[in-house]
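ok here's the first one, seq then struct tokens
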Amino acid sequence: MSRRVAVIGAGIAGLVAARRLKRSGADVTLFEKSRGVGGRMATRRIDDLQFDHGAQYFTATGDAFNALVEQWRTAGQVAEWFDGAFVGTPRMTAPTRALAEGHQIVGGCQVTLLQRDSDGWSVHSADGLIETPGNGAFCAVILAVPAPQAVPLIAAAGAHLPGLQAVRYAPCWALMLAFAEPLGARADRIQPHDDVIAWIVRDSGKPGRPDVETFVIHASPEWSRAHLEWPADAVASAMLARFRGIVGVSADPSFFAAHRWRYALVEQAAGSAFLWDGRARIGACGDWCLGPRVEAAFESGDALGDAVVQDLETGLVV
């Protein structure tokens, strides 16, 4: 049997699944719609500025994830920010970039179709078959993308993953701010009781960050949902006004922009570590399987990677 496996999505779940498969001797290709890796463990870089505009930190409770975090700490790829909360250093993407080392990753392509013939699975974008070695001969496919993005791919592939459609997310608008001068001593983390703003982080206060005053502000799920289709400029202006009111500053930012996370926070999880159709050899993983935590994404990707390894080695449906 072929041991070529396609992994769609190079966030932490996809990268961890790929790591498990590669260690077993499988030939893994990751497909990622963005130019970089990490998913919501993201950093936006604009000239000399950087913003962790997705996940702000992560925690580790289980032995396996703690061991991986310790490896990252030893390598200088993460640091503790506060009370057991970790961040990537010098950017939030550092841990996933470390996981991505040595993998074959096809970036900048959005997968729109999975097809199977006698040779195996092939992966397609809107422009057709994605040109990369082994495409068309994958024996298994892992979808490590938000559940709503996996639904049409699974349906078109003729696979069956019960529980996938029940997953629900809250969206989030993120505002990135930079100031030419420090705003003065204030808390690095603020969770105001506000109907617009849920979370204010002084991003430059995290370990290893550049000495430039930067903030990331996350809107509340309710406000984000109500304003999901607003233009980004309008969202940025509205959130900036509310930020000023909460923090009590009048200075104009040297940079500000908003980013929309359509699938940000898992509100209803699948309740299973992963989903797997052994007949089709298609599975799905992500934080949406277990809950809105980076560690949940790790656990899901690791569990599915292990299940696929067992399936390839024994031929048993997991």
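and now the second one, same deal
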Amino acid sequence: MKIIADTHCHTLASTHAYSTLTEVARAASEKGLLAVGITDHGKTMPGAPGKWYFHNLSAVPDSLFGVRVLRGIEANIIDFDGGLDEAPSILEELEWVIVSMHGPTMPAGRKDDYTRAYLRVAENPRVHVIGHCGTEDFRFDYERVLPVFSEKGKLVEINSHSLSTRRGARENCREIALLCKKYRVPIVVNSDAHFHASVGEVEEALRMLDAIDFPEELVANSSRERFERYLRTHTKVNL
């Protein structure tokens, strides 16, 4: 299995990443990707981009170096009602919306609290991807929530970066992937690159999926046809 798009990448705008948007797009081109998601952090993350950054992403061309650039965001879930840290009007302007829970932006709670938050997020029509949800700090009721993500058209991200950096993520992501296989929940495999050399580097995640015989047809970014089908159905984007 391989991926044809990496839809979760950060640039210097996030201030804890180290490459420009141009460098990220060039790296995606050099690795033969068809698309790359520029998904810098929403405003409650320390060091997040300034007020006008997401409004002005329209200045970025649709394609750079032959790669479709998805103008996006990694918005933060900030409460147990599934609230996000960017206004609906901003999300509406963007082409690709990932939502994630992060320690600096999400209050401490219990499993039931995170389950409720994710169920509310699933109802948000502007959200496309549930980002790196295998972190032990924000464990939720996988059996209950994952089928709802599928029903509401959300892709569950298997984040290769998380497998080695987030507490409990390796075991939890495997459990999530097995349940996605069981319930036929579509996923997307991403790098969460914070440096251009890491764009498209998802081998660790793909090895985990291969080990559990995960169906390739459930990986939205494993073929142009599948990715375009998702984009056609859930976004305004054309490759």
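notes on #2: The two ends are 21 Å apart (CA to CA). Residues 5-234 form a domain with the TIM Barrel fold (CATH 3.20.20.140).
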